[in-house]
Write a structure and sequence with these properties.
The complex is a heterodimer of chains A (560) and B (334). By secondary structure, chain A is mostly helical. Chain A has two domains: 263 residues, MetI-like (MetI-like fold), CATH 1.10.3720.10; 202 residues, MetI-like (MetI-like fold, Orthogonal Bundle). Helix content of chain A is 76%, strand content 0%. The C terminus of chain A is likely disordered. Chain B is of the alpha/beta class. Chain B has two domains: 161 residues, Periplasmic binding protein-like II (D-Maltodextrin-Binding Protein, domain 2, 3-Layer(aba) Sandwich), CATH 3.40.190; 149 residues, Periplasmic binding protein-like II (D-Maltodextrin-Binding Protein, domain 2, 3-Layer(aba) Sandwich), CATH 3.40.190. Chain B has 14 helices and twelve strands. In chain B, strands 1, 2, 3, 4, 5, 6, 7, 8, 9, 10, 11 and 12 form a twelve-stranded mixed sheet that branches. The longest helix of chain B is centred in the last third of the chain and has 20 residues. The N terminus of chain B is likely disordered. The chains are: A mainly alpha (560), B alpha/beta (334). Chains A and B meet through α5, α11, α12, α15 and α18 of A and α1, α2, β2, α4 and β7 of B. Chain B: Its main location: periplasm. Chain B: InterPro entries: ThiB (IPR005967), ThiB-like (IPR005948). Chain B: Pfam families: SBP_bac_6. Chain B: Keywords: Periplasm, Signal, Transport.
Chain lengths: 560, 334
């Protein structure tokens, strides 16, 4: 008990504004950015012709197609994500489970052009899988069209959904699991009583996240869509901005996109699912699930195996393509290697702060969520999604206008890139941290209030032990997303000092296909390292020490 | 605090680079492929700096369209002295912004396939759009646009989208120049052969063509020069089409609000000298805008002869682009 603060003194960071101020800053910043971007476009533009939205068959088609592919992609990604998460939960002894988790994390942050190249090598016309299918099933699979779009979206998003869902499934309170185990709940009943209540609070958020990602998808749609029939709003916005210089239309379409995705987020956030009533501070060991029977053992493992193959094949293709030239780079004259290392150093010096920043921003937003004012709560739910809903070029324009006068040398530019990357990763880190943060039960919170465990102490003793692993994972996602970023760095970086993705695009843009394949592989290896490293960091030193134990015992006793 | 540590780290990353600031800096907005380490940019910077007592500073924006957009956003307060990387597709829009000033330099030694007397834009290189094919997969490529359009549908090609990419727009204009108002029907026929319409040249070339997804991709007639000279392979060649090939000219221009107009004009003059032009053929993989004589790399003699040069006046293109794009969309979506 010695570590607990005396209740008379105020704990550090315990004043109410520490809950609200950082969060309000983040939320306000995001809103200002969006308004600046849209405002700049409208201010520069002719009056947009709003009636064009329903009069132009082209735009109608674009909106309909965008919605259709996003709904299909999201449904499949979520369904597969749930199945995989449940299988992973049940098969904790699945060989290679850890590796699979890392690959799942990796798939989201792969640069699109690299992932698409890997997918094409497997599922394209000349792809290995296509040829197996053609040979063994005599089925002519065609990647190009809605098939390819959905396949690629599922490749990116099912692992993300699975990862988020698994995390909330794993945080099911031990007492509930114990009771379910004692009652021998199986199948539907176990799902209804244990799994579904665990998934339900995060499912809307995960769904909205995946939907928004698919809705705003760009390069995938164009490369694999087969033709201009497959056009999303994002493409139309890009076209209006870059080629027609029709800023009015670009702004109008961006608003349409914002409204559609925003409504979805608002709808998803309408109910407050986060209240968790059962005590869950026990860190008890494995409680056997009653549904770990033989049939599940077989089906689960088959599913996991198939899913691993699905995720690994494109990565293997990238490996096969990049390895020969990467070994040339590594054992070559040293010039190319030097370039690669410098770019890596630069990338990491942007990505690590960006990851930390996105985690800090997510915590700030979560702090805002604890304020019991509905409007503020809503704000905390909606604003973090803004970086996903507003096209990057609109955000970029806004930022450019807001910050340009103060933009000096290159290092400030890179700091800015880290800042924006951090904000762009916010929707992901937030999804990962939300449940672990909000999931603390009311009884514990009340007890903590009574004991005066506030501010820093509350964070250190109540939240930190539960959030160590999620925080590491969020940090890994934040860092990984920034490491693979090309959009923002292209706006504010300098070509003479490329990061890894910039180097990759430069090489691709000037016929250096072999080198580009090597850089792509190197980038993927770096991303893998990030996830392995941070996951190890999150695991090591399990909550230990007498103080930790005493806290747990205290909590357990009260409910014994 | 966090932000400060971000600054610190980013500062560390770039501390190796010192910016010399003791004399005039000429700022050039350009494209990444030009400014990249293996692009022509660095060598040209070095060559120009030895004769100008100034610093040449590249700001690379993603594409010609981005250069233009940045210029519009910044208006008269722009830092740019010169823009380099616009082309015949974007120059009319650039002209209409009124942000550019006449170059006032002599264009006598230009060696372009068309007459060029533009008062604002200085050409620095040019190229022809062409379909590049894989000789191992397609030993006998179509010899004309017409033959391509009438080829069996199992011949697959990759093109870029005219809404987002320069070569994509090039093919649109190429079809227009050959078929005029009949272009729509021809597109419809061609559409069955199009495997993918990618966002950018890189998406098509790296993800699809080099993965062997289709034996032909819309690119430049000069593309094989790179493969032959640097990759040392003759595997990828451009298909010569009887109707002729569509021309793209890349241009530079002086920015009206520049405070170093004399220096900027010196740079524009420098563009038309061997010190600049010699880096174009293999580093930008385009034809130089002046006659390099024997300095033109030998592989350029092995490229296809485009025959007739197809070109639509940029002003006409600017007027009709939207209508032509819509016709293309209608033809393709049906």
């Amino acid at each position: 008990m010695a570590a607990f603060p005396a209740t008379t003194n105020r704990a550090p960071l315990s004043r109410p504004f520490w809950h609200t101020l950082p969060g309000l800053l983040v939320a306000g910043g995001l809103i200002a950015l969006t308004l600046a971007g849209l405002g700049a476009l409208i201010w520069q533009a002719r009056q947009p012709d709003v009636s064009e939205l329903w009069n132009s068959p082209y735009l109608r088609n674009v909106i309909a197609f965008t919605l259709r592919q996003a709904v299909i992609s999201t449904a499949i990604s979520l369904a597969l994500g749930i199945l995989v998460a449940l299988a992973l939960l049940r098969q904790s002894a699945f060989p290679g489970r850890k590796a699979l988790l890392r690959v799942m994390e990796l798939s989201l942050v792969l640069p699109t052009i690299v992932a698409v190249s890997g997918l094409v090598a497997c599922y394209g016309r000349e792809g290995t899988v296509t040829q197996w299918i053609g040979h063994w099933l005599s089925y002519e699979w065609n990647l190009y069209g809605i098939n390819g779009i959905v396949l690629a979206h599922v490749f990116f998003n099912a692992p993300l959904a699975g990862r988020i869902l698994l995390q909330s499934l794993e945080s099911v309170p031990a007492p509930r699991r114990r009771v379910a185990s004692q009652l021998g709940l199986r199948g539907w009943w176990h799902w209804r009583a244990v799994d579904w209540p665990a998934i339900r609070p995060v499912l809307p958020g995960a769904g909205a996240l995946v939907f928004t990602l698919c809705f705003t998808s760009f390069a995938i749609i164009m490369t694999l869509g087969g033709g201009p029939g497959a056009t999303t709003l994002e493409v139309a916005i890009y076209q209006a901005l870059r080629f027609e210089f029709d800023f009015g239309q670009a702004a109008m379409l961006a608003v349409v996109q914002l409204i559609i995705c925003g409504l979805l987020w608002a709808f998803m956030a309408r109910g407050d699912f986060s209240a968790n009533l059962s005590p869950q501070r026990s860190f008890a060991g494995a409680i056997p699930r009653p549904d770990c029977g033989v049939i599940h053992r077989i089906t689960d493992r088959l599913l996991l195996l198939a899913f691993s193959v699905f995720l690994l094949l494109p990565l293997i293709a990238i490996l096969a393509r990049g390895l020969p030239s990467l070994s040339e780079v590594v054992f070559g004259d040293g010039n190319a290697l030097q370039q690669l290392l410098t770019a890596s150093l630069r990338s990491f010096s942007i990505a690590l702060p960006a990851g930390a920043l996105s985690v800090a921003a997510a915590l700030a937003i979560l702090g805002l969520g604890t304020v019991r004012i509905p409007a503020v709560k809503k704000l905390s739910n909606l604003t973090p999604a803004i970086p996903l809903m507003v096209p990057p070029i609109v955000l970029g324009t806004g930022l450019f206008l807001l910050l340009r006068p103060g933009l000096g040398d290159i290092s400030q530019g890179l700091a800015l890139v880290a800042l924006i990357n951090g904000l762009m990763a916010l929707p992901f880190t937030l999804q990962l941290l939300k449940e672990p943060f909000n999931g603390l039960d009311r009884a514990s919170l009340n007890l903590a209030d009574q004991l005066g465990v506030l501010g820093w102490y509350r964070w250190r003793w109540l939240h930190w032990p539960r959030m160590r692993a999620p925080l590491s994972l969020a940090m890994a996602y934040g860092t990984g997303l920034s490491l693979g970023d090309f959009g923002v760095i292209a706006l504010f970086g300098s070509p003479a000092e490329p990061t890894l993705p910039v180097l990759l695009y430069q090489q691709m843009g000037s016929y250096r296909v072999e080198l580009a394949a090597a850089t792509a592989l190197w980038l993927i290896a770096s991303l893998g390292l990030v996830f392995i490293g941070f996951n190890a960091l999150g695991r090591s030193k399990a909550p230990s020490g007498a103080q930790q134990l005493s806290l747990e015992r205290l909590a357990e006793m009260r409910h014994a | 605090m966090l932000f400060r540590s971000v600054l610190l780290l980013a500062g560390l990353a770039s501390s190796a680079v010192a910016v010399a600031d003791n004399h005039t800096t000429l700022t050039v907005y350009t494209q990444p492929s030009f400014a990249a380490e293996w692009g022509p940019g660095p060598a040209i910077k070095q060559a120009f700096e030895t004769q100008c007592d100034c610093t040449l500073h590249y700001v690379a924006l993603e594409s010609g369209g981005d250069i233009l957009q940045r210029l519009r956003l910044e208006g008269a307060s722009t830092n740019a002295d010169v823009v380099l990387g616009l082309d015949t597709g974007t120059m009319e829009t650039a002209r209409q912004t009124g942000l550019l000033a006449p170059h006032e330099i002599s264009l006598d030694n230009l060696d372009l396939p068309i007459d060029w007397t533009d008062p604002l834009f200085v050409p620095y290189d040019y190229g022809y759009f062409a379909f590049v094919y894989d000789t191992q997969k397609l030993p006998n490529p179509p010899t004309s646009l017409e033959a391509l359009i009438n080829a069996p549908d199992d011949l697959k090609i990759i093109i870029e989208d005219p809404r987002t990419s320069t070569p994509g727009l090039g093919l649109l204009l190429w079809m227009r120049a050959v078929y005029g108002d009949k272009a729509g029907e021809k597109w419809q026929k061609l559409s069955h052969k199009i495997l993918a319409t990618t966002k950018s040249w890189s998406d098509g070339y790296f993800s699809l063509f080099m993965n062997g997804e289709a034996p032909m991709i819309l690119s430049y007639s000069t593309s094989p020069a790179y493969h032959m000279a640097v990759d040392k392979t003759d595997r990828y060649q451009a298909a010569r089409f009887d109707e002729g090939h569509y021309l793209q000219v890349e241009v530079a221009a002086l920015v009206k609000s520049s405070e170093h107009k004399d220096l900027a004009r010196d740079f524009l003059k420098f563009i038309l000298t061997p010190g600049f032009q010699q880096h174009i053929p293999l580093k930008n993989v385009m034809y130089p805008a002046t006659d390099l004589g024997d300095d033109l790399p030998a592989v350029f003699d092995r490229l296809i002869d485009p025959g007739k040069t197809l070109f639509i006046d940029p002003a006409v293109v600017a007027q009709n682009r939207k209508a032509w794009l819509n016709q293309w969309l209608n033809a393709m979506i049906q």
